[in-house]
Each structure stands twice: as structure tokens, then as C-alpha cells.
Amino acid sequence: MAYKAFTLGETLEASEVNDYLMEQTVMVFADSSARSTALAAVLAEGMVSYLTGTDSLEYYNGSSWVAVATAASVSAISDRNAVVRLYMEVM
User: Which of 13, 51, 57, 82 is the most buried (most CB within 10 A)?
Assistant: First the structure.
């Protein structure tokens, strides 16, 4: 699916909203229950969601939600400073 640069004042067709906006986004939910309720009727392989309650990034593989798995480690180097290392682990 291609990407599109919209121009000011352009009218969007329903198919453009579905293809360019809804299918190319990371949806944000409080938790998996909220996600399940919101997406029950429209669940499709390739959807991506972020759960704020657990700071989880997940994608739908056609049968279940799978963690993309981000991780962070924090190591204090003094009482006022900390080093934070963020990395991504592919599950």
C-alpha cells in the first residue's frame, strides 16, 4: 500500500481514510480489554497497537496479538543522574 501526501482543502474519500489513515497507524489503548472491545468487528492481520497500561507495542498476526517487545534498562550512576538504555528486542 502506498503513502499519500494530502493537500490543504482536499476532500478524502472513504477508501482513502481506510487505506491511508486507518490501516497505517499505531492505535493507542489503555489495555488489551479496551483494544478487544474497540476492534472486535474490524480485527485484521497487520494491525499495530500500543497499550499505555503496560507500555507494550503489539501487532496482530491474524490469530493473536504478538509483542514487538521493547525493553529499557536504567542504571544509576549517581544519586542525581541515571543512564537509560533503550533497545528493541524482536520476539
Answer: 51
